[in-house]
Write a structure and sequence with these properties.
This protein is mainly beta and 322 residues long. The chain is built from 4 helices and 20 strands. The strands form 4 sheets. Strands 10, 12, 13, 14, 15, 16, 17, 18, 19 and 20 form a 10-stranded antiparallel sheet that branches. Strands 1-2-6-5 form a 4-stranded antiparallel sheet, with no helix packed on it. Strands 4-3-7-8 form a 4-stranded antiparallel sheet, with no helix packed on it. α2 (18-29) packs antiparallel against α3 (34-41).
Length: 322
């Protein structure tokens, strides 16, 4: 990286103290031809476009500027050592990358469509702080809807063993808010390849009615119908932070990919990993089942960015610029 100090050293100009140079100039002025010698002794002024005081200033690059509700932007800040982005009052952390820092900014289902500003604060290698205001436009998403009918509890079913399970959502919210060192690498993959008996049975953000009730809320993940026992693979590198039977999502695995990105795999018939285990992109974390609140064998797949649930399918087709 070119810096002012390195350029001056390469030109052989040195960094002499201004007082010493001025003293040399005053003495030279009294000698024959002194004025010309005095001017020659003064420090040189070197103009180098694009080179700052101690290196190039940080520069922001966005994968695109028109995210959908439930979408995400891939953000890079070149020549920065730390940076964070803010949108709609939420802070998205960024992690070290090849050219500076990088990461994702997620947009929730309730973020208002229309013009907005993505604010980025970055620090360079010598502690300088830089602020950027990047204009974006959030696009409205047309949410799908579905009517779901769940059978009543079986009166002849044996009583559950142990105490009743507590709802897992508060624990998931706490996990989704954590930020650990980055492990993810582009690209992300779908946990089960689509085709044949494998298909999307429920889309992210979908509004649902249960047993004839009103259509409310937004589905927090993507449902992928598949035969029971189908292997479920981690969408990226990471560390398992939850692996247990839960109330709603049944057998559940959560993988922390670092940098504020986590993925969740629910309704599994079998969990293949334990808490603390490192996984690589494509490693099997469990198998498709119908545990928890489920009407048939399928995978519930969630993706969270800095606590914001986003549409994982949009991370697979390049429509978000990554």
């Amino acid at each position: 990286m070119a810096t002012r100090r390195r350029v001056i050293a390469a030109l052989g100009l040195g960094l002499a103290a201004p007082g010493a140079v001025l003293g040399q100039a005053v003495r030279a002025a009294g000698a024959p031809g002194g004025m010309a010698q005095a001017q020659a002794a003064l420090p040189h002024r070197v103009v180098l476009p694009g080179v700052g005081t101690d290196g190039p200033r940080p520069a922001v690059r966005l994968s695109f500027r028109t995210p959908f509700q439930g979408g995400a932007i891939y953000l890079e800040v070149d020549h920065a050592v730390t940076a964070a982005a803010r949108a709609f009052g939420r802070v998205s952390p960024l992690s070290p990358g090849p050219r500076g820092v990088e990461g994702f900014v997620g947009f929730g289902v309730a973020d208002p469509p229309g013009p907005a500003v993505l604010e980025v604060t970055a620090t360079d290698a010598v502690g300088g702080t830089f602020r950027f205001s990047e204009p974006i436009t959030v696009r409205a998403t047309q949410w799908t809807w579905d009517d779901i009918w769940l059978p009543p509890p079986d009166p002849n079913a044996p009583p559950p063993e142990g105490p009743p399970l507590e709802p897992e959502q508060p624990r998931l919210d706490a996990l989704y808010a954590t930020v650990t060192p980055r492990q993810w690498q582009l690209p992300f993959i779908i946990p089960i390849e689509l085709g044949g008996e494998v298909w999307v049975s429920g889309y992210f953000g979908e509004q649902r009615s249960f047993n004839g009730g009103p259509r409310t809320g937004h589905h927090g993940g993507t449902d992928i119908a598949a035969p029971a026992g189908t292997p479920v693979r981690s969408t990226n590198h990471g560390t398992v932070v939850l692996s247990e039977l839960t109330l709603v999502r049944g057998n559940l695995v959560v993988v922390d990919h670092g940098g504020g990105v986590l993925s969740c795999y629910g309704h599994l018939s079998q969990r293949s990993v334990e808490v603390g285990q490192a996984v690589r992109r494509g490693d099997v974390v469990g198998r498709v089942g119908s545990t928890g609140l489920s009407s048939g064998p399928h995978l519930h797949w969630e993706l969270s960015v800095a606590g914001v649930l986003v549409d994982g399918l949009r991370w697979l087709d390049g429509t978000q610029g990554f």
